[in-house]
Every structure is written in structure tokens, then in C-alpha cells.
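Give me C-alpha cells for this 334-residue protein.
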Amino acid sequence: MSELKQAPDLQLLTQKLSASNRHFSLLKQEINKAIVGQSYMIDRLLIGLLGSGHVLLEGVPGLAKTLAIKSLAQAVHGAFSRIQFTPDLLPADVVGTQIYNIKENDFLIKRGPIFANFVLADEINRAPSKVQSALLEAMQERQVTIGDETMALPEPFLVLATQNPIDQEGTYTLPEAQSDRFMLKCTIDYPEFEHEREVMRRVATKAPAVINPVVSLEQILEARELVSQIYLDEKIEKYILDMVFATRYPEKYGLSELSEYLTFGASPRASINLAIASRAYAFLQNRAFVIPEDVKAVAMDVLRHRIGLSFEAQAEDLTTESLIEKILSKIQAP
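Here you go.
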């Protein structure tokens, strides 16, 4: 790694990263006007933004998940739409539909709220699978097909979804195919004592914060280009692949005891997104190359929704997080 730091191209890239990072420091400052603490959640939203990956936030009500996503969208010069997922929502309410125009004697396309740079899918697990599946094409291919016409979505395009893990009535488990399209699934915890005290004081004494747009869409696209240039060594690539393959074939990595607890392992999207997220994390650290700690920092968020637990694991109260932690501790970092 010492040779990497002195490479002329990496030094130049580091300078570019520093300039671009200033915009994201401003972005964080604006979001923090509305959000107290929750730095983990904000960083993961920025990783999704930098890595062109969708983010799923899971946590109990009242943890500012929706507010954080709205604040991020307000701090960027872009189009924002919110879809409140409910059991009676229809696919056409998300992507749009064809309507008949009597004057023209023809069908016209009415675009849905999916046509925005930032789409907040609030309580996404409250809609049935036929509505959730309406997002599949949009999230993977960045396009929507209505009738016989296919339309590209604006760039950048990001689905930022929330879900409540404790409600059972009126909720539907996300299909594996859709979960896999989220780059990150982040579990949000309760705020710290002092942070919650500050929230309590703000709500009682201050007007809602005014979020100003401080970053343009062009600056986001430029930052994404820089992220793609961050150096990923072959040893880091092997580390990522070993981590993912250990979820599929644990016995090959000295983890035979996990075989009975896993019904399926992480898909190739896990490897792709782990590499992208690691680069984005390195970008936020103002570093032009990825180190093993970057991979470890984002591994849980990339993998937790991509492996299946068997009945045996559920009977023993094991979680995907506990199994991933065993894999992380077993796979040797370069």
C-alpha cells in the first residue's frame, strides 16, 4: 500500500477527491440541520448516492428515516417524489399508466412519481408484491415500460426506501429479487441519550430547519466518476469474492457449521455492490484506494439482505448479522 500512496495518478486523484469531497461536506452540514446524530444512516445514504445504488432503511418508527431521505433530496438540485406505500396501492400509481385522450382519439402516457431523481418509497413493505414488482425494472435498468413504450428515468436515479420491522398486520415481505436490487440495507438504531435530548429541545423550541440545495446533479455525476477511478487492488478483489463465496459454500472456507443455517448465499450483485460501496466509502474518507477496513465497514449492509436463513437458524434465533460476523472473522484480510 505504501507504493500506492506515492503513485502519481493516485496523488492526482486524491487532489480531485478533496475538491469533490467539499461538496459532500456541505451536503452533510445541510442534512444535519434537520437530523441530530445518526451519522451511520447519513453516511450510508451518501454511499448510495455516490455508488448509484438504492438504499433500504429499516428501523422502528420515529428514527428520522423519512426525514433524512427528504433532507438529502432537498439538499440536492434535483427532482424528488414520495410514494406512500399502502395495501391498496396499484402498480400504475408508481410507474404511471395510459389514459385515453378523447380529443386526440389516442392513448397518452401519464408518468408516475417514479420519474424523479430521488424516489422515497415510504414503508415499502406495506404494499403487496404486484406493486413492489413495479419497481424491479426501474431499479435495475433505470427505465420504465408502459404499454409498448419504454422510457429512460432521469440520471441520477435513486430509490430510497423505508420499512418498519415490528409491524406484522398489513405488511408484506419484500421478494428476494427486489431486496437484491438494493445496494444497502441499513438497520437504524435508537439515538444516543444526548442526541435524543437535543431532538426533544429542537422540536419544542425551534421551527423546522430550512434545507438549502448545495450540490448540483452534475457534481454528483462527477463524484461518481471519481469513485469509479478509486483503486481496487487484486488482493482486495479476492477478499471481497472470498467473503461472498463463503455465504454460498461455507464448507470451503472452514465454516461447515454454517451450511445447515443457510438456504442460499449472496448473488453476484453482492460482489459488484461490495466493490462499489467500498470505493464510495474510501471516497468519503478522502482516499484514492480501498483498504480492507473499507470493505468491512460496508460488508454487513451489502450482505444482510442477500442470504437466506434456514428453519434451523430461525429455531436457534440466529440472525443474518450473526452469520455474516462469523464469515467476516474467518475470512483473512489481505
